[in-house]
Specification:
binds phenylalanine; BirA Bifunctional Protein, domain 2; eight-stranded mixed beta sheet; two-stranded antiparallel ribbon; alpha+beta
């Protein structure tokens, strides 16, 4: 019996001492494998007399159970430790700063469009859009610019090849690259019932090219149609917009009487600037005035052309060059660079792609 106790003691110590699953398996084979020491003992039971078996059997079986149990619990312990070690070595450190690949920048025109959408959304305006290939009727006719009207000469229009002649009231066939975003006024009034409050940013085209004009440029149209709308609403809206856009409270506006066929009365809007170190900075008016947009009360003929009763509905509209806004706010002086695609210019004037403008954070943050 003392042999059995010794063996038991020896095996249990070996089990506890095994440092890994491989070592434990070696102990298991040594004890319980085919030639294992405990297995050998069990085999001796077959050759014993019933009395001997009765005397020694329970102790040998108890030994096997003790060793089997010890191996199982050691195995569970080692497996748990291995799992914990693996988890510790593979842990992701969520506090590490993420490496965001800044592959590109947001073009100032896109940035300003986002800023406009943000500012006007706060004033209850939705964003509308229309096609760049426009019909003569949407671009001119419905806007009270008939074919013989001298105002057509104000726009150096790109006509599509083979678009000469045709019915001036054709509302389907594109004939021009839109010369302004004003046709979106028409499309919006035809598509939805008033009250209407939209802005329509987008590309526009005129055959013109110098430091401040490119054949393709960007405008944003604004349109409000409702009951009892006055010039006062127009002025307040423009003032609120320009203050938010330039992020200054000292913005001063000057409405200069002007002429557009689609508004009556019409006003050109100038914004005051001051001179700081020889540079024009928007705000105040000590330095002079800069024209920033055209506007007016929507002409009754335009409202009627869209199937609305001008005695019931009135409104205002404005049109503003987006590229010019960007130049004034961010200090570029040559418009042509906007569309050269020079990576150095984009790196310098571009905006971080994750830096979305919000009114509360300052739109141009
Ligand atoms: N469409 C005019 C332009 O391109 C601007 C404008 C829009 C004027 C709306 C008045 C009202 O010059």
């Amino acid at each position: 019996m003392t042999d059995l106790d010794d063996l038991r003691q020896h095996l249990l110590v070996a089990v506890e001492a095994s440092a890994g699953l491989d070592a434990l398996e070696a102990v298991r084979v040594d004890a319980l494998g085919k030639q294992g020491r405990v297995t050998q003992l069990l085999k001796t039971l077959g050759g014993m007399t019933p009395e001997e078996r009765q005397a020694q059997g329970p102790a040998i079986h108890a030994l096997r159970e003790a060793v089997t149990g010890a191996i199982a619990s050691r195995k569970a312990h080692l497996e748990q430790a291995a799992l914990e070690a693996q988890l510790a070595s593979e842990r992701v450190d969520m506090t590490l700063p993420a490496e965001v690949p800044l592959a590109g920048t947001v073009h100032p025109v896109s940035q300003v469009m986002d800023e406009l959408a943000e500012i006007f959304a706060d004033l209850g305006f939705a964003v509308a859009s229309g096609p760049e290939l426009e019909t003569d009727w949407h671009n001119f006719g419905a806007l009270n610019i008939p074919e013989t009207h001298p105002a057509r000469a104000m726009h150096d229009t790109f006509y599509l090849a083979g678009s000469g002649g045709g019915d001036p009231n054709d509302r389907e066939t594109p004939r021009v690259l839109r010369t302004h975003t004003s046709p979106v006024q028409i499309r919006t009034m035809l598509q939805q019932k008033p009250p209407i409050r939209i802005i329509a940013p987008g590309r526009t085209y005129r055959s013109d090219s110098d430091a401040t004009h490119t054949p393709m440029f960007h405008q944003v149209e604004g349109l409000v149609i409702d009951k009892g709308i006055t010039l006062g609403h127009l002025k307040w809206t423009l003032e609120t917009f320009l203050k938010a856009f330039f992020e200054r409270d000292d913005i001063v506006l000057r409405l200069r009487p002007s002429y557009f066929p689609f508004t009556e009365p019409s006003a050109e809007v100038d914004v005051g600037y001051t001179l700081e170190k020889g540079k024009r900075v928007i705000g105040g008016s000590g330095g002079g005035w800069m024209e920033v947009l055209g506007s007016g009360m929507v002409h009754p003929k335009v409202i009627a052309a869209c199937g609305l009763d001008p005695n019931e509905w009135q409104g205002f509209a404005f049109g503003c060059g987006i590229d010019r806004l960007a130049m004034l706010k961010y200090g570029m002086d040559d418009l042509r660079a906007f569309f050269d695609g020079d990576i150095r210019w984009l790196k310098h004037y571009g905006f971080a792609s994750l830096d979305v403008p919000t009114l509360s954070g300052g739109v141009g943050a």
